[in-house]
Write a structure and sequence with these properties.
The structure holds two protein chains of two kinds. By secondary structure, chain A is an alpha+beta fold. Chain A has eleven helices and nine strands. In chain A, α1 (15-26) crosses α2, α1 (15-26) packs parallel to α3 and α6 (186-205) crosses α11. Chain A is globular, with a radius of gyration of 21 Å. By secondary structure, chain B is mostly helical. Chain B folds into two domains: 3-37, no CATH class; 41-129, 434 Repressor (Amino-terminal Domain) (Orthogonal Bundle). Chain B has a two-stranded antiparallel sheet. Classes of the chains: A alpha+beta, B mainly alpha.
Chain lengths: 340, 135
């Protein structure tokens, strides 16, 4: 069997942004970039889930719920979407093959643990990775993993195993694709940018509770200051290493996400020429820089170079400062007068 | 971050690919650039793996000392916890916690052992003997 959809692989910083952008380009949306997809999909987020442990460390996410960037971007741009989950593996394979036969590249949510082309060091039980399947040659599926420079492939057994990975956020064979060719006008993008920004303002500033949004960042900062006494230096170091991995690894990105958001606001300026956007973009550049400074401080602790309480206090202060700066940045965004 | 400041350190991923980073150029415009890795996060990954290796070694000792069953060893070896293992095997979490004890393990039927072995991607014999073959 040989099938191959017309498909162009473009590398991205974040998997779901990349899948969204590449799939939409495939149906004729040529004016969408990774930062626009991220901003329109309101991808920036923060949550610390107390009591829950992931890989024996704190559960922290810098992103919205998996799947939302694609969903929101498509709905804001008026693009119809098909999304399916499966209980049967045969059915999951059959539907995928049918799409490929029709020349449609398809987005798949997969687990990373058995993703054979990743180096072992990266293979944790993380189930919200996104890839595009764009063809099949004999028993091999052609794969575009947006965080990679080159395309790759998986055997049908390997693909099935990652599509049916188990545990938190189990993908259950989930696939999704835009179901129709569409041309998206600049006016639609203008409008989608406004709704994406407003939703992100809501998620970061007004989400109830103290664990999420800018309040969650401050909460985490305060928690970190207590880690040294509560957990002991070694475990506290492990927790900080986990924070940094969630923050800076491919696909997640706390610092990196701020830069993508900064890029989004600059690109939004082309559609809404108000100087405030450029100014707020540079505010996000500053918070991205501060996230990275915090990561360097954390590394000092988990490398064993820093071990005093003042070192933990400084780490916590960085997060509290970031929380304050991002609050200001989102406040400024909420005050923009949009002209539609 | 300025474009020139994008780190180009060796990382675990760079056997496979470089990563896309967003940064500003001299005029303040955002551009993309490839990065081979960042020492700060490479070290974070190392720390996570040192902890995993340590947990595996402790589990192995416990199994050899008769304090725990090989399921504990393989659970650590496959980076799982009882929740993930429950999802793969279909056993309830509390039953898995029981099976982590050496005594309860001895009473498992062949069929139950097979379910664990499949989840760990090993043979039943290897499960019982704590044999690992990389793959």
């Amino acid at each position: 069997m040989y099938m191959k959809a017309k498909f162009e692989h473009l590398q991205a910083a974040h998997c779901e942004n990349g899948v969204t952008t590449n799939l939409l380009r495939g149906v004729g949306v040529n004016n969408l970039t990774e930062p626009l997809a991220f901003g329109i999909g309101s991808g920036l987020f923060f949550i610390y889930i107390p009591l829950l442990k992931i890989n024996n460390g704190p559960a922290i996410a810098f992103r919205t719920q998996p799947g939302l960037i694609f969903k929101r971007t498509c709905s804001s741009l008026g693009i119809p979407v098909v999304r399916k989950k499966f209980s049967s593996r045969e059915e999951a394979r059959k539907i995928l093959d049918q799409c490929l036969e029709q020349g449609k590249p398809v987005g798949c949510q997969v687990g990373v643990f058995y993703l054979t082309y990743f180096p072992r060091e990266y293979r944790f039980h993380f189930n919200a990775h996104n890839i595009i399947v764009y063809g099949k040659e004999q028993d091999n599926y052609l794969i575009s993993d947006p965080v990679m420079e080159q395309v790759t492939s998986l055997s049908s057994y390997e693909l099935e195993r990652v599509r049916f990975a188990k545990g938190a956020l189990a993908p259950r064979g989930q696939l999704y694709y835009p179901s129709d060719m569409r041309v998206v006008t600049d006016a639609q993008i203008r409008k989608a940018i406004v709704s994406g920004v407003k939703r992100n303002v809501r998620d970061m500033l007004y989400i109830p509770g103290s664990f999420a949004g800018v309040a969650g960042i401050k909460y985490t900062g305060r928690k970190i200051k207590k880690w040294r006494d509560k957990l002991g230096i070694q475990k506290a170091g492990l927790y900080l290493a986990q924070l940094v991995r969630m923050q800076e690894e491919i696909g997640t990105g706390g610092g990196g996400f701020r830069y993508i958001y900064g890029a989004f606001l600059q690109q939004a300026f082309a559609y809404h020429p108000t100087d405030a956007l450029m100014e707020i973009s540079s505010q996000f550049t500053r918070t991205g820089d501060l996230w990275r400074t915090a990561a360097v401080q954390a590394a000092g602790i988990y490398k064993g170079r820093l071990s005093g309480q003042p070192d933990f206090d400084l780490m916590g202060d960085y997060l509290e400062e970031i929380s304050e700066l991002e609050k200001q940045a989102f406040r400024s965004l909420s005050k923009i007068k949009w002209h539609l | 971050m300025k474009k020139e400041e994008i780190p180009q350190d060796p990382g675990a991923l760079n056997k496979l690919t470089k990563e896309v980073c967003y940064a500003v150029d001299q005029s303040g415009q955002y551009v993309t650039e490839l990065s081979s890795g960042w020492e700060v996060k490479a070290k974070a990954l190392d720390v996570a793996w040192e902890d995993i290796e340590n947990r595996i070694a402790v589990a192995r000792q416990k199994v050899l000392g008769g304090e725990a069953s090989p399921i504990l060893f393989f659970m650590e070896y496959r980076l799982m916890d009882p929740g993930i293992l429950a999802a793969y095997t279909g056993f309830w979490k509390w039953r898995i916690k029981r099976h982590l004890r050496a005594k309860a393990f001895g009473k498992l039927s062949h069929n139950q052992l097979r379910r664990y072995a499949e989840a760990f991607n090993v043979s039943v014999e290897d499960l019982k003997n704590m044999n690992v073959h990389e793959g």
